[in-house]
Specification:
The protein has 308 residues and is of the alpha/beta class. It has helices at 24-35, 68-79, 131-137, 144-147, 163-172, 192-200, 245-249, 286-303, and strands at 3-7, 10-20, 40-43, 85-87, 93-97, 100-105, 108-117, 121-123, 140-141, 156-160, 179-183, 204-206, 210-216, 219-224, 227-231, 233-237, 240-242, 273-275. It folds into 2 domains: 3-122 and 241-303, FAD/NAD(P)-binding domain; 125-237, FAD/NAD(P)-binding domain (3-Layer(bba) Sandwich). The longest helix is centred in the C-terminal third of the chain and has 18 residues, at 286-303.
């Protein structure tokens, strides 16, 4: 069980492990650590990217797929069977010293011997109203790895602002021959090599800059210049915002896109600080997040002193 102590007249909670992030990675790590009989305090701001998933068909064990919100609720219910302290709050500040790690939220703070960051990422959305509704009906999509299967043979657009969009359009060409690439500022941003790759894949590229994106009657319309193109689905390839602020404040190293560097045990470059899920380098998939969480939790358990 976690405990508390008075620090300068303020009660501060203590635990073996602090976890920041209540998505699939954070919840899975908390379940593992609780079953290892470790005390855990989990900060869950209820902002997991997984909550936006309309239905995942590649998460193992669910024949008809499962919504992201249902998966999160199931994980929370599973965690509630164990004596884990779950605080629904944002982490405002984190620190570490010779006594381990600390984290503060608006109404409290806690210390732990080790810390796991599962702070995830956010997709950068296109300038379209009703994003969640568009995600639910499949006119807006973010992950061709997750749901490329659902657009087989369909008319698909890719919304991008850089070379990454070229790669995503070519990736989707495996699922359908009907691909149109829309560059945010127009195709002038493409190199000759980009154009050659698109031509070889028989992918249409719109020359004009984008003006607006609208979903209607389960179709999406992209307005570009004085023209418009209609698609069954639009993949947004504008990238993600990696939530690495706490990790960077603690001194953890990241790559040029802010993904955290971790070793084979999910430990960052800061001793005792672990990370799992989309905030780390690698494939942004739920199964990868939960697998990384299991690896991190197991390593943290081995590192902590045996119970007496």
């Amino acid at each position: 069980m976690h405990s508390s102590e008075s620090v300068d007249g303020v009660m501060q909670e203590r635990a073996d492990v602090l976890i920041v992030g209540g998505g699939p990675a954070g919840l899975t790590a908390a379940i593992y650590l609780a079953r290892f009989r470790r005390s855990v305090i989990l900060l869950d701001a209820l902002q997991s990217r997984a909550a936006k998933i309309p239905r995942s068909h590649n998460y193992p064990g669910f024949v008809d797929g499962i919504t992201g919100s249902a998966l999160l609720e199931s994980l929370r219910k599973q965690l509630d069977a164990y004596p884990v302290r779950r605080v629904n709050a944002y982490a405002e500040h984190a620190w570490h010293d010779g006594d381990g790690f600390g984290v503060r939220w608006p109404t409290g703070s806690a210390r732990g011997k080790l810390m796991l960051l599962a702070t995830g990422v956010d997709d950068i959305a296109p300038p379209t109203p009703y994003e969640l509704e568009s995600l639910r009906n499949g006119t807006l999509r973010y992950c061709p790895i997750c749901d490329g299967y659902e657009v087989i043979g369909r008319e698909v657009g890719v919304y991008a602002d850089g070379a990454a969009g070229v790669g995503e359009a070519i990736y989707l060409r495996h699922f359908t021959p009907h691909i149109t690439l829309f560059m945010q500022a127009g195709a002038a941003a493409l190199t000759d090599e980009d154009r050659t790759r698109l031509a070889e894949a028989d992918i249409r590229c719109v020359e004009e800059p984008l003006r607006s994106v609208h979903s209607w009657n389960e179709r999406v319309t992209v307005v570009h210049g004085e023209s418009e193109t209609s698609c069954d689905s639009l993949y947004c390839a504008l990238g993600v915002r990696v939530h690495a602020t706490l990790a960077l404040a603690l001194g953890a190293e990241c790559d040029e896109t802010r993904y955290l560097a971790v070793d084979a045990h999910q430990q960052t470059t800061v001793d005792g600080l672990y990370a799992a899920g989309d905030v780390t380098q690698g494939l942004n998939q739920i199964v990868v997040a939960t697998g990384g969480a299991a690896v991190a939790a197991s390593a943290m358990h081995r590192r902590l002193a045996p119970l007496r």
